[in-house]
């Protein structure tokens, strides 16, 4: 059943460009796919490992700048830019995560938030490298074997392929022994230690993997925008990733994926009222948090549990 639903969803996503014939709608779904991947990476760090990391915003921006600089300044191509983004984010995540994960939970949140803010300052003030507020415009369309992803529909299929690969990897990781171990560490770290598990190693692995996936998402997205500037490190992106994880249900893969596709499209669906669009959006979020304190996945879990209890009476 799950395989059929997945196949149907994939076919529906693949049919978006020809079905709507609108670059605007295709672009909205494209953005939703990228944000969903970044949210799923945050879910690995926060939902599975229990680490509320604001550093994801920094990794998002680093990925975008690394890919853009590789192409525009150092003469590389798009694919080399993705590789550089992944490697740089992995190195920075390991350097930041190793000492930071040895601190307490509250200190970890503050340090990762400071890291994200520092990345924004670097993007704005290191003018000789990033061009500061001017940013790096004119990013060329990626190409593969002579085929250029120069239109929105073509770029959409590049993003769709990336999303399927990235989400498939994160799903496999979350359902593996590593994912189970991360959940055990989150639920009861002293008990996990007593079973011979090294929490630091698993947390660091989740932190680095989350940084790589988020960085790749950012590296691809700037080529859709065709520019990267300090606004790419605006807290709006981190807010979006976190909202998706919370609404979907932290620690639940499919809940986060569903919430990612819905929550990104919701502001666009509310454009019938430009003046009150974000007010309505905020009200919907507040109501959702009051009605679904554990997210969509938690609500379904509670319903299944209630039905099971009723059947046993």
Offer a few descriptive terms.
4 strands, two-stranded antiparallel ribbon, ABC transporter involved in vitamin B12 uptake, BtuC, 313 residues, mainly alpha, globular
| Order of strands, widest sheet | 1-4
- How many domain units? 1
Q: Work out the radius of gyration.
A: 20 Å
Return the structural class: mainly alpha
CATH architecture: Orthogonal Bundle
Q: Which percent range fits the helix content?
A: over 70%
Instruction: Quickly name the level 1 CATH class.
Output: Mainly Alpha
Q: How would a crystallographer describe the biggest sheet?
A: 2 strands, antiparallel
Instruction: List the uncertain runs.
Output: none
How many helices does DSSP assign? 15
Number of strands: 4
Provide mean pLDDT, rounded. Answer: 87
Q: Give the end-to-end Cα distance, rounded to a whole number of Å.
A: 29 Å
Summarize the structure.
The protein has 313 residues and is mainly alpha-helical. The chain is 77% helix and 3% strand. The longest helix is centred in the C-terminal third of the chain and has 27 residues, at 199-225.
């Amino acid at each position: 059943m799950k395989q059929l639903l997945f196949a149907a969803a994939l076919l529906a996503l693949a049919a978006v460009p020809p079905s709507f014939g609108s670059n605007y709608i295709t672009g909205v779904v494209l953005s939703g796919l990228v944000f969903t991947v970044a949210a799923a990476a945050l879910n690995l760090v926060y939902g599975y490992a229990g680490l509320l990391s604001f550093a994801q915003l920094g990794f998002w921006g680093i990925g975008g700048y690394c890919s853009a600089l590789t192409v525009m300044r150092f003469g590389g191509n798009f694919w080399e830019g993705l590789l550089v983004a992944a490697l740089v984010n992995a190195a920075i995540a390991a350097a930041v995560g190793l000492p930071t994960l040895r601190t307490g939970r509250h200190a970890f949140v503050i340090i990762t938030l400071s890291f994200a803010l520092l990345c924004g300052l670097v993007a704005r003030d290191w003018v000789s490298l990033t061009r500061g507020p001017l940013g790096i415009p004119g990013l060329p369309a990626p190409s593969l074997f002579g085929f250029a992803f120069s239109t929105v529909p073509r770029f959409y299929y590049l993003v769709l392929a990336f999303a399927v690969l990235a989400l498939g990897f994160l799903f496999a990781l979350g359902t593996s022994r590593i994912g189970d171990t991360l959940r055990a560490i989150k639920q009861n770290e002293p008990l996990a230690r007593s079973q011979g598990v090294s929490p630091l190693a698993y947390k660091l692995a989740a932190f680095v993997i989350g940084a790589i996936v988020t960085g790749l998402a950012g590296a691809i997205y700037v080529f859709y925008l065709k520019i990267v500037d300090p606004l790419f490190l605006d807290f709006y992106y981190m807010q979006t990733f976190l909202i998706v994880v919370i609404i979907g249900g932290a620690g639940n893969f499919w809940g986060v994926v569903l919430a990612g596709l819905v929550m990104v499209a919701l502001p666009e669906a509310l454009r019938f009222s430009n003046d009150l669009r974000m007010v309505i959006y905020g009200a919907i979020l507040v109501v959702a948090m009051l009605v679904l304190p554990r997210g969509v996945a938690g609500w379904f879990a509670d319903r299944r549990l209630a039905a099971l209890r009723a059947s046993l009476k």
